[in-house]
Each structure stands twice: as C-alpha cells, then as structure tokens.
Amino acid sequence: MYISTFHLMPHRELPDDFEKRYPSVWVTPPFHELADARRVGQYYNWTLDELIYAAKAGSDGICTNEHHQNAYGFMPNPNVMGSVLARATQDLNCAIVQMGASLPGTQPPIRIAEEYAMLDSISGGRLVAGMPLGTPMDINICYGVTPIEQRERFREAHDLILKAWTSKEVFAWNGKYFQLPMVNIWPRPIQQPHPPIWIPGSGSTSTFDYAASHDHCYCFLSYFGYKSVSRPVRDKYWEVCQQNGRDLNPYRMGFLQLVGVSETDAQAEKDYAKHVEYFYHKGLHVPLEWFGVPGHQDYRSLANAMRNPAAAQNISSLKEKRYKDFLDDGYVMCGSPATVRDQLKELCRTMRVGNLMVLLHIGSMPHELTLKNIDLFFKEVAPALRPMWEDEWENRWWPAGLRRETLQGAAA
Amino acid sequence: MSTITDRRASVWQDKIHPNVKVAGSGSPVVFLHGAGGLRWDTFLDLLATRHTVYAPEHPGLTEGEEDAISHLDNLWDLVLYYYELFDALGLKSVPVIGHSFGGMMAAELAASNPERVSKLVLMCPIGLWRDDAPIPNWMLITPASDMVKYLVYDPAGPLAQQMFGAPDPEMQIRLIWSMACTGKFVWPIPDKGLKKRIHRIQAPTMVLWGKQDKLVPVRYAEEFGRRISGSKVELIDQAGHVFATEHPERVAGMIEDFLR
Questions:
Q1: CATH architecture of A2-411
Q2: Is A290 in the B-facing interface, judged by CB distances under 8 Å?
Q3: pLDDT at A312
Q4: What are the chain A neighbours of B70 within 8 Å (beta carbons)?
Q5: Which of A292, B82, B147, B189 has the most other CB atoms within 10 Å of its CB?
C-alpha cells in the first residue's frame, strides 16, 4: 500500500450562514465579500506547510489539484504548488502527485507536458502525472470549453502530451482541437518513458475504460465513502480491467478518503465534527445542475445517470446530514487510530485499492489540528496499512526510484 | 389535425440520418426548432393547414442517432449540413422559419447562401450579443425548475404547467441532450459571428418577438431588424420566449400572411 496526502486548499473561514446567503461555493461566490487576499496567502502557506509536514511524517506522496473560481479548493494551477513541494522535499522519498492540471482546460496542452517535465526534473524523478478531465464548473463554466467536446479534447491532449514527452523527433501535431507545427518540448521528464499516469474520476464507466485500456491508474475521488458505491464501482472497474486484458493489480486503483484521527472516538468527534459538516455543507454547496451541464456526459452516461439518480441523491441530501451520518455512511473515517485503521483496511480490501489518498485537512480545520491529524495518522495508522498487497504486487504506477523494493535495494 | 409523417433523410456522406417531421400540404416551409428540441404543437399544426411543413430534428436528437452529433465540428459544418438536408428533401429554395437556436441557424443559412432561403421568419433568434442586454446561459439555469420563468409569459399558468409540470426522466434526458447538441455550436456565448454575415441576407424577412421574453430580451428584435435591410419586426404582447406555443393562432396567422 502506498499512501498519499491530498490537499484541496479550501477557504477555511466561510461565514456560518454561507450556504444560506450564497447560491454556490463554486463559480459565483464574491471574493471581496468572503475573502481577504492576505489571509488567502496564509491559507496557501498553511497548505504547503501541511503537505511538507506530511512528507516528513512519512507520507509516500503529496497531492494537489486544480479548481477555479471557488472557495472549496482554489489552486488554479497545482503546478505552482507542486514546484514548491518538489523543492522542499528534495531529501525525502516522497512522490509529487499532481492530481493535477486539467487537460481540456489547458491551451495548448503541451504546457502541461512542459510543466510536468519541469516538476519531474526539479524533484529528481518523483512526479506522478495526474490527468484530470476537470469538473463541469471548472472546464465548461469557468474556462468556457464546450461541454460536449470536453472528453474528446481530454483524449487528444493526453495523446499529445505523451508524444511530446517521448518523441525523439520534432513533430507536427494536426489534431482536431490542437494544431502545432513543430513540437519539441524542453525539458523532458527524468522518468522514462514517462512518469506514471493517474486518471482521477468520479465513477463514470467511460473513464474506467479509458484508464484500463491505456494501462493507467484510475483514482476514484469519492466524497461519499466506499460503502454507498463500493459494489457497483468496484465490480464495474475490475470487470472493465479484465475486459481490457489487464491483471487485478490493486495498484491500478486509487481511492480518496477523508480521515480524522484522534486519541479516542469521542475526542475525534470533538476535534472533527464541525469541520466535516463545514466541508459537506459549505464546501460542496453547488447547484446540482452544474455537475451535469448538458454535454458534459455523453448520451449513454446521461441516460444512465438520469435513470439511476443515486449519485444525485448523494449530493442533494448532504445538507440534511450531520457528523454522525457522515460517519455512519462511511463518507468520512474519524476516530481513534484503531477505528480508522480497521475501516481503512476494510475499504482497501473491499475496493482492492493499492494507492490510497487521504484528505487530512478537511474544510475549516485549523493548521494545528491538521498537524495533529497528520502526526497521528502516520504514526498510528499508516504503518499497519503499508504491508497490504506488498508481497503480491508491484506498484507500477509509482515513480520507479521511490518503489520500496528500489529503496530497500539501495539501502542494502 | 394534420397527419405527421416521420421521414429519415441521409446526409453528410450517409453518416447522419435525421428524422424530419413532415405534415400538411401546399407550398413547402422548413421549421428549425430551438435548443429544447422539436415539439410538434398547435402552432405547427396550423402552419400545416396551408403549407407542407418540414421540421427536421437537429443532428444527435433523432432517437438511436445520438452520436451523429460527433460528425459536425462547427457552425460551418452545420450550415453545409443543412444545405445537404434541403437537397435530400428536394428543397431548392424554401421559406425557413426558425425559433431561438433554430432562428440563428435560419439566419446563418440565409446569409451564407441567399439562394437557398426564399423567405425568412426569425422567431426570437439568438446569434447576436449586446453587453447591455446579456442573454442568460440557458444551460446553466439553476434550479432547473426556474427554466419556466425564462421561457413562459405566465409561469404559473396552465401552459407552463403543461410544458414543465411533471418532468419524467425520459423527457429530461431528451431535453438535456438537446441542449448539449445545440449547445455545441453556441457555447458559452451565443455570438458566433453572425453580425459579420447578417448583411448578406437577401430574403424578405420577418422578425417576431414576445414582448416579455425573459431569455432573449426584446431589445434584440430591434437589433435584428436594424441589421437585416427591409425586414419587418412584429412584437407579440403577453408573450415570452415560446410565444408561438402561447399564441398559436395569432402567430401562425402572421406567418401565413407574410408567406403569401
């Protein structure tokens, strides 16, 4: 098991009545009413400090991602953050997991090939290259990309980036969405033929198929835990892998889980309850329709979603739930080290997850509490999870220089 | 009520097979529907009493042909596609009536090749943009139930109830996919350069608008009228963006007079 610490870089101090006063946390929240630029600078620095702290505490990787025009998590360019992190973790065996720069929203996409190659260079070959499709809010609404073209643009950008990384010749790219006369990017990645590629997704079959057919790691970014979705997602994903002739290597699957560790279950409630509610009530306060902007899903996915409204119900019922519900439904795992450990083991076994990502800063959590969570998690929880899958499978989706067998070999 | 026939055409190197609803008798007219899809209503029925109405479904909206939309990349493709569809229907030069998104397409067809459009009826078309009268993006309206307020003059009345009262999932799927396939050509702002081409329109033109249109403000009636020489602009009172559904007799009558 490899465990990475994820951070969203959210606004930590939204007003208590935020979700009543404003229609959405995404796209439309007024910056000047809700935030202060200097204070926001403090959030960015806390975020960086927390991720570096996690790396020092033993996190195998640290993750940032890209979102726009929101208070839920606002790193418009995760590579700006990744660059600081790569530099600050020079002497650590920690992967820089970019989850990452959104392919359909970056023009031309070789910008991502270049920035990722820079990160791989600066980090000494520690980059994991996340390739997200991007949410409809980010890509269609904020960045103006035509919804029905988003997936096709993603696929073309992916192919272009891979060719830009690996081609020994200058080449012309005559695509449908991108045309470039002479591609020959500098620098190139240290990792050959290219850094491992992770595809984040939220459970749509077409993304499973894409990841499996390209032999990339699929990362399920679920805020609804694994209980509600476990069977359909797990079964479908591994079925798609087999259809594509892939093995059942658990490192093909990443999973993001919200986690809060305290001394006891009771203390965990005191520590994390209000931050968990803040995250779900304010951080995900988005009109349901915007998750399904017309064209963002192809016809089959759309029909499937409208006929099986479970996911939509997950989102629309968030405001009625309190900490205990989020806990009971497995959306979050909070409690003593033993409680969290057992639940995470169960999650990873059930879903067959090899690349676990944990969100240890949740919503409004203050800096000090985040450090406590990181400390307890990596001291008391992570060591028990690490041996999972170790003897049977190799994590081919991890930077080769950071795989445990490489590190152990080097130590011996 | 006239008999409506579904006719499948083969267009674009046999890659797209749109369903065309054909009804009535008399001289032909083409009706191009808006972003919400084709809905055969009393207005089209009345039109079909004097004319043969050809109402094609936008590419991707014909059942079983959802992926056909992937064969058309941009507005230029779509304009040429329509000329091919007219060929397939045997329509050399024909009056074209277009509503909203379909109105924009009708104007594009008349501007690109004036020989194909003999008369032009624009029913609250999109296609132009004024910063002082921004058109709300209909694909982003939240909550979705608010859509009715943008479209219907009396959102509490029986017509609104009939159109939006009890949405079932299958209707929702068709509506969303319809917005996806039409939105391909106008996202994110419905201004794709018609202002540079509109002066080429030669067809006698009538511009119709609901006075209380909350989606595309009536301001644009004047804008279209000003830019199409010799056109006449008619406003319909107590009417929203779907004024032909709200006032079918009156609107069908106005169009018949104009086409005569």
A1: Alpha-Beta Barrel (3.20)
A2: yes
A3: 76
A4: 152
A5: B82
